[in-house]
Design brief:
Elements lengths: L4 E6 L9 H18 L3 E4 L13 H8 L7 E4 L2 E2 L5 H14 L4 E6 L4 H7 L6 H16 L4 E4 L4 E5 L12 E4 L4 H10 L2 E5 L15 H15 L5 E8 L3 H23 L8 H13 L3 E4 L1 H14 L5 E6 L5 H20 L3 H12 L1 H13 L5
Helix pairs in contact: 1-11, 3-5, 8-9, 10-11
Amino acid sequence: MLPTSFGCFTLPFHPPRQDPFHSLGDDIDLVLLAEDLGFDEIWIGEHHAGGWGTLTAPDLLIAALARETRAIRLGTGVVPLPYHHPVHVAERILLLDNLTRGRALLGCGPGAFVQDMEMIGVDPAQVRPHFAAALETVTALVRGETVDVHTPWFTAREAQLQLRPYREPVEVVVASSLGDPAIEQLAGTGTHPLVNLTPPWGALRAGMVGDPIGQLAQRLSVLRERAAGPIRLNVFVHVSDSRESGIDEIFEGWMRQRLELYRGTLGMPVPGSESAGRSALEALIDAGAFIVGPPQSCVERITELSTRLGGLDTLILFVPGWVPNPLLERSLRAFAREVAPALRGWHAGVEKSLAAATAGSARRAELRAAMANAPVGV
């Protein structure tokens, strides 16, 4: 029931007033930290416009990190397929798969920023069918098939890949809300879902939070009836000394991104008052959509979340840029050292040995005393 694999999902967002060069350095440092802490995978996003999304080519960053890492799997989180020719996407992921010795993951989606689409001439009204056609082509190419297809958006004539996977087939993961069309797509292409428990902005107002876990549980039950394969869940987790101190550590960055990005840049109707923002944040935590608090509390909330969802394969920690780097590093270290081992059951052997030692402590103390008083043999 509990996840035994853990990762991080990084938004490609950096505050516009922050130097993009140093922001990129922070992204690299985060990947190297995740590797050192034993996280299984990390996802690197892509955006192209709006002043915030300055990480535009996750495949190039993954290529740079291929020689800097040894174990962690590196995923594109996500490549918007309508922005790229699908043959190029398939070629690049196979190249990354070889450069990383089998650690590359292809995460893909239809795209979300209309400004990105307008800048390169992608029709927002056509991104869903465009994505479906591109996904079918990419997955066929990655499987080693030859593709001959003509669509309103791209053409592939007897297309095939020259490279083959380094060790195993490249895993293709689709960022999905698990609506009915998405479930149909997941069931038919052999891809696996990466699901957000709540949107990146959380909820506009406290009264709009509802029961995100219950709603997702219903969608997952439908998916499991239609398709097999691992399920990755993307959840914001912040390990802190207490719930209250955790909220204080998050709040400034949470409000800045909500007001400057989602309200100021994207025009979403986010309330401007601090009280409304804090109420929305606390409501998300109370509903289990965000997990904030000390390690044992995080273990309990993740256990409850996994149980309600019928089990999880991989828990992905959402890293949206709300938390200052020193506090983010502290949270990730605490998760890796205290939360993940508890969920994996790694304490079981120690606890069993400790219980056995405690149960026999009185008898062993008597034996030690007898040994101390025994005459020394010649």
